[in-house]
Design goal:
Helix content: 55-70%
Protein name: DUF3307 domain-containing protein
Number of domains: 1
Radius of gyration: 16 Å
Distance between the termini: 24 Å
Number of strands: 0
Structural class: mainly alpha
Shape: globular
Order of helices and strands: HHHHHHH
Keywords: Membrane, Transmembrane, Transmembrane helix
Number of helices: 7
Amino acid sequence: MILSTHAVVGGAIASLFPSHPILVAVAAFASHFAIDAIPHWDYPLRAIRLKPGADNRRLLDPRFLRDLALIGFDACAGLLIATWLFATPATIGVIVLGALAGMMPDPLRVVHRVLPKQPLTTLQRLHRWTHTKRRLRWPLGISSQALFAASVSWIVLTVG
């Protein structure tokens, strides 16, 4: 899933338990693995490689800046959407916490590439195991994520 989807789901979870930030962080973090199991589309990274044995020494490659901009835009869009949908002045902190926790397993993949130590190694093994092997193509893959995030948001906003 793209980071925006993870952020919206994490923000939705946070809106259900705004007075329990530890529960929010754990549940939003765990939600990442659950929704990564759904077949989806991921945007291609040009310079950053996350597969085992990948060589990321060429991070000065101009494509790296494109990757960073794409990832940054995706994460910021997700944070903005999650806060717009779920935050109130009293809950903005916990909503941002939920959105960040929902996205966190993906940046930890990059950290693991640089520092392949425990507990990151076990976390990445879990991430690979839970992540779907079935990829959807554009535009079905992105539209299905938008529909999923919208459905989760609608359910939480009407039931929660």
